[in-house]
Every structure is written in structure tokens, then in C-alpha cells.
Write a structure and sequence with these properties.
By secondary structure, this protein is α+β, with helices and mostly antiparallel strands. Among the domains are: 83 residues, Rieske Iron-sulfur Protein (3-layer Sandwich), CATH 2.102.10; 223 residues, Naphthalene 1,2-dioxygenase Alpha Subunit, Chain A, domain 1 (Alpha-Beta Complex). 25% of the residues lie in helices and 22% in strands. Strand 4 and strand 5 form a beta hairpin. The longest helix has 26 residues. The N and C termini lie far apart (52 Å).
């Protein structure tokens, strides 16, 4: 089931007028209007503080992000549960890039640029579907699932070589059923080192034996970095009443950071963590925190963490939302395996279902967020799970996050916006911004100030 519609990238954006670079003595209003000279912005990035306004509002910065981040590093695209049969496909857009993620007849995954090699027409405009060969709707050039050009009507002359006009491909990796793509000519190899670290956490949930129960697609009127920043902290989680029933509001806090009104919750959380770790050890499941969010190119964080209440799932009582266990799991009370990956995804792997979150930038002020709920492939809607109950917590949380992001975007566009400090519990936001600025400095050849 699909909730939402496809929006095309690069529409309705705003570009700041070029002016002189601000000095430290400039007022916030003057600095806000200053040029988005990205190397200078990166060079003066203030550690521990939010980014300057052009990072969130300027079209030139957005275009640089699309090249330096989304055109360079490994990105989450979809799961194999979204393309279960040969010929099934989804299309994903990252700013100006559009990709076809297609299940092949052999059961593999082919990722092709969604651009005809004749005159550049968009080949598959729908967000999902099933195809045999890929036929361009403009002049009927026809391609195989691997991108090979099979037919071009009335080819120009005998010198025309179809082999020279195959669809362009993106690099692909499937990790425990999650499909990642890289648009760079040569993808970073660091991701190869991360895969064996995260795969053992995810494999027991067996995405290959799941199906899509529901998919929600929403557009947030905010820059993609604001969407990611919002996800990387729980300082705002008081604004998520449905989620707070099962997710401990002390997430992100450590000993010595607990406010008095959360001390009882902290103790309950610690007891639940100890019980979960004992249960995981019994079943041979990984639970340790592995965290390298800004210390490597393929920044990530993975752990298995307890949930409140019954500790089984994201529900009002913490109890399971599907009667079917995933994979070969033997217990419902396994909390959540949480995975964060830079730059565009996060995931929750539970015993009864999986939730994937993918961020697709549209332009400097709009971002599409796609949330997909996966259940066991033999689970029956209405018998084993209720679709409204299954999706309620994260549908509501996503809409609340959308509102928070849009408030931040409005603030970043104000002439009086200036950078504010991150709190200790927002360390993952700082790590995301560190990761982003490091990657962009490398892309532009900027040497950080001493």
C-alpha cells in the first residue's frame, strides 16, 4: 500500500544573492544574506554548533551536496522485499538523479539510471511497478533488465552500435536484504569493511522472508540535513507521545546526564537493558553498541536496545504488533535492533516487523521521507496484524517530525537566524554534521582551519 505521490526534484527553490563573505562582526541578518561560498563556509564551521543558514537554504550548496555526498557515497535505496519478483522495480530520486532498482530474472538486483540513451527521456515515471523489458515511452527504445539496448527503431545507419548505448548503471550492494547504491564511478571501499560488522545484527530478521505491509511517503518542507539532524537526537522526543509509550525517553543520555524527572525511567531502562542483553546472549544475538558515525567514511551506529512496557514492539503497551516472528527468531521480547547509516537512512529491526526509513532530497527546501513496514511473508493482514495498529506509532511520529523540521527550515530562512549550540544528548547530530563537513571538505579540497 502506498501513501503519497512522487514529486520531481529541483522545483521551487531559492538562491541567495552573491555578496561579500561576512566577518565575525557582521550581524546575523547580514551574515544570512552573504554568499554561499561553500569552501569558506566549511572552513569556518563552528564545532558544537548548528550550521550557518546557507547550508539549509541555498541552492548552490544543495547542488554541491548532490555531487559531493549523494553522487559519491553509498546510499540506501530500498529493500528486496519491495521488489520480490523478477521484473518488479521501484524508482528512487536523489535530487537530480533518478534510478531504477529492478529485480532480475536470476533473482539479483540491477540499478540503472532512469534516463533513456536516445534523447534523455525519463524511462519509468512511476514509483513502482513490474516490467519485462524497459521501453522508453518517447521513441520506444527498448532495454533489457541489465540495461542492454535491445531495439532502436530505424537506427541512423550501419555505423550505429547498440552496445554503445546501454543504460548507465549504478554500483549496487545488497546487505542482509537492504539495497544500497553508489553513483560514483569508483565507490568508496570503506563500506566493504562496515558490512561484516552490521550484517550479523540484521541477518536473523531475514528480510528475504518478509513482505511490504505498508509504505508511507511524505514530503517535508525542509533541507535534507535538517531531516537527518532531527532523526539523530531524542532531545525533542517529548513531542512524540505515541513513540514515548515504547521508546525510553532517556535514549541518547548517559550516566550523569539524567534530569531528576527521568531518574525513575532511567533505572527502568537500565534494568530492561540488562534483561535484554541476557536474552540476546542466550539466543546468540549481537547487542553491543558499535558506533563510528564520524570516524570513518561509511559512518554508522548499530545496537540492540530495550523497549519500554512489554519490550516487544512499537505499541502503546510495548506488546507485539504481528503474531508472526521474523526469520528464525524465537522470542518476541528482543527490543529493537537500531541501525543509523550516513547519509540518508535509519532502521528498526524488531522481532515481529521491520521499519526502514529512506531520505531522498528533492531540492534545498524539500525532502521526501519514505517509511516502509515489513512483516513476515506468511503474516496475514487482519489475522496476524492490523495495519492501523502496526503503523500508528511511526505514522504519527513521522508527521510530528515533519512539523519540527519545517519549523527549523522556517527559522533558517529568517534574517535573524544564527547558529545555536548542541546539547550533550545531541552528540549524534554533531557527529552527523562532522561527517558531512568532512566529506564536503574532501570533495572540495578544503583544508580545515588550524
Amino acid at each position: 500500500m502506498i501513501d503519497g505521490k512522487t514529486l520531481h526534484p529541483l522545483g521551487g527553490g531559492r538562491t541567495l544573492a552573491a555578496m561579500s563573505t561576512p566577518s565575525p562582526a557582521m550581524s546575523p541578518a547580514t551574515a544570512h544574506e552573504a554568499t554561499s561560498n561553500l569552501p569558506e563556509l566549511l572552513e569556518r564551521r563552528r564545532a558544537g554548533f548548528s550550521l550557518e543558514a546557507p547550508f539549509y537554504t541555498d541552492r548552490d550548496v544543495f547542488r554541491a551536496d548532490m555531487t559531493g555526498i549523494f553522487g559519491t557515497y553509498w546510499l540506501f535505496a530500498a529493500s528486496i522485499a519491495e521488489i520480490p519478483e523478477p521484473g518488479d522495480y521501484v524508482t528512487v530520486d536523489y535530487g537530480p538523479y533518478s534510478l531504477i532498482v529492478l529485480r532480475t530474472d536470476e533473482g539479483g538486483v540491477s540499478v540503472l539510471h532512469n534516463v533513456c540513451r536516445h534523447r534523455g527521456a525519463r524511462l519509468l515515471p512511476e514509483t513502482q511497478g513490474t516490467v519485462g523489458n524497459i521501453v522508453c515511452g518517447y521513441h520506444s527504445w527498448t532495454y533489457a533488465a541489465d540495461g542492454e539496448l535491445l531495439h532502436a527503431a530505424t537506427a541512423p545507419d550501419e555505423k550505429f552500435d547498440p552496445k554503445c548505448f546501454s543504460l548507465k548503471k549504478a554500483h549496487t550492494r545488497v546487505v542482509a536484504g537492504l539495497i544500497f547504491v553508489c553513483l560514483a564511478p569508483e565507490p568508496p571501499t570503506d563500506f566493504d569493511d562496515v558490512i561484516p560488522l552490521i550484517e550479523p545484527y540484521l541477518a536473523p530478521h531475514d528480510i528475504a522472508r518478509t513482505k511490504v505491509a505498508y509504505q508511507q511517503t511524505i514530503v517535508e518542507e525542509g533541507n535534507w540535513k535538517l531531516v537527518m539532524e532531527n532523526n539523530r537526537e531524542c532531545y525533542h522526543c517529548v513531542g512524540h507521545p505515541e513513540l514515548a509509550c515504547s521508546l525510553f525517553p532517556t535514549w541518547g543520555l548517559t550516566e550523569g546526564m539524567i534530569p531528576p524527572h527521568l531518574e525513575e525511567v532511567w533505572e527502568r531502562n537500565q534494568a530492561a537493558e540488562r534483561a535484554l542483553q541476557e536474552r540476546c546472549d542466550r539466543y546468540g544475538l549481537h547487542w553491543e553498541v558499535l558506533e563510528e558515525l564520524d570516524t570513518r567514511i561509511a559512518g554508522f551506529r548499530i545496537s540492540r536496545e530495550s523497549l519500554d512496557g512489554a519490550g516487544e514492539s512499537f505499541s502503546e503497551t510495548g506488546r507485539r504488533l504481528s503474531k508472526k516472528l521474523l526469520g528464525d527468531l524465537r522470542d518476541f521480547r528482543l527490543g529493537r535492533c537500531s541501525l543509523h547509516l550516513q547519509p540518508n537512512s535509519w532502521f528498526h529491526f524488531l522481532s515481529d516487523h521491520i521499519v526502514t526509513f529512506a531520505v531522498y532530497p528533492l531540492d534545498e527546501g524539500r525532502t521526501m521521507v519514505r517509511t516502509t513496514w515489513l512483516v513476515a511473508d506468511d503474516a496475514v493482514e487482519g489475522t496476524d496484524y492490523d495495519i492501523d495498529e502496526l503503523t500508528n506509532v511511526w505514522k504519527q511520529t513521522n508527521l510530528q517530525d515533519k512539523a519540527f523540521v519545517e519549523l527549523c527550515q522556517l527559522g533558517a530562512e529568517s534574517p535573524v537566524y544564527e547558529q545555536g549550540p548542541y546539547m550533550k544528548s545531541e552528540y549524534q547530530v554533531e557527529a552527523f554534521i562532522n561527517w558531512y563537513t568532512q566529506r564536503m571538505r574532501e570533495h572540495l579540497g578544503v583544508v580545515p582551519a588550524a
